[in-house]
Amino acid sequence: MEAQRWSFGLSSTLPTSPIQNQKHPFFQILHKPSSSSSYTSPNNHTVKGFFLKPHFSFSPEVFPSKRVFQCTNCLQRTEREATTVPDNGVGKELKKKKLAVFVSGGGSNFRSIYEATLEGTVHGEVAVLVTNKHDCGGAKYAREQGIPVILFPKAKNSSEGLSEEDLVGALRTYNIDFILLAGYLKLIPTELVQAFPRSIFNIHPSLLPAFGGKGYYGIKVHKAVIASGARYSGPTIHYVDEHYDTGRILAQGIVPVLANDTAETLAARVLQEEHKLYVEVAAALCEERIVWRKDGVPLIRSKEDPNHYK
User: Fold this and answer.
1) pLDDT grade, residue 27 (50/70/90)?
2) Fewer Cβ atoms within 10 A, N terminus or C terminus of the chain?
3) pLDDT digits 0-9 by tens, 55-68
4) What distance in Å separates the CA atoms of residue 166 and residue 186, rounded to the nearest whole number?
5) Do the Cβ atoms of 191 and 168 come closer than 8 Å?
């Protein structure tokens, strides 16, 4: 079968978009070109979506039962991206990992992780940001840093955004190693969980399994913690499965609940711990320091002492 072509074009006029900015366009539109350059997904829907960087062209190669997207005009890699580190606890040199971060709000955890990659604390690169709110603070910050932005999921009765299948294809195009949810409020679809097994992580602002599940997010979590009389709270980083907050726990941070705490003051202290914990976990992921106990519990190998686990 002749490979079809998936083209991205930069549009400075978005007649249906409330965020049009001809001087500094926020996104590109993934559009349907003419004749042989068009791309139609297997469910006969034209692929559309939002991306930031212009002048990309992707060609899907057809393999048995799978469609893989490959970048045919990628940006040149910097020398820093090609560097390796020898310390992952087993003396193995490692290339930088490609990270996709998902946000729905201000993206303070995303900023912490991104800054840590620039500083070298995290041996990885934020290759793309995914959001369900194109005008949220995290998406705006990503655009300012030149990070590609993808809108997901596709809004109802709208052609904007990507489907589950096309999101998987786009992330594979960026050669993503790990997906980090940082305040992303949508349930991750089964297609994505299955495409990236043991590679998707979420941070939750309570000590799971307490105060987790559908409806427990943001300030609601901290109000519930205080109302319960719990003496301790803190963030939890866990693997993502097909449900809210039920995946295996990887790391937790402890934050005392003070007698005079409000939901807002507790939230502020938990958020500070989130920033610290997520960077530590991202560093461990990129250095391949995650090991699995025989009972299926993931542990983090200490960087200083490979025989010690956190």
Assistant:
1) very low
2) N
3) 333 333 333 333 33
4) 17
5) yes
**For residue range 68-99, what is the model confidence (pLDDT) as tens digits?**
333 333 333 334 444 445 455 555 688 999 99
Determine the Cα–Cα distance for residues 277 and 144; give it in Å rounded to an integer.
Answer: 25
Give the pair of three-digit tokens for residue 39. Answer: 């791309």
Which helix H or strand E contains 117, and what residues bound it?
helix 108-119
Calpha distance 29→161 (Å, rounded): 9
Task: Concatenate the DSSP letters of all residues of 220-287 into one string.
Answer: HHHHHHHHHT-SEE--EEEE--SSTT-SPEEEE--EEPPTT--HHHHHHHHHHHHHHHHHHHHHHHHT
Distance CA(180)–CA(200), nearest Å, equals: 6
Which whole number is the average pLDDT over 159-167? 90
Whole-number Cα distances in Å, 231 to 255, 263, 267 = 9, 13, 14
How far apart are alpha carbons 90 and 80 in whole angstroms? 22
Identify which of 141, 163, 143 has the alpha carbon closest to the alpha carbon of residue 151.
163
Any residues with CB less than 8 A from the CB of 173 and at least 6 apart, and which?
58, 69, 70, 71
Q: Report the alpha-carbon distance of residue 91 to residue 44 in Å, rounded.
A: 48
Q: Is 204 a catalytic residue?
A: yes
What 3-state DSSP class applies to 77? coil
> Which has the minimum average pLDDT: 92-96, 123-127, 163-167, 233-237?
92-96
Given 123, 204, 222, 238, which residue is catalytic?
A: 204
Identify the CA nearest to 29 among candidates 186, 163, 162, 224.
Answer: 162
Q: Hunting for tokens 């106990």 — which residue is that?
A: 293
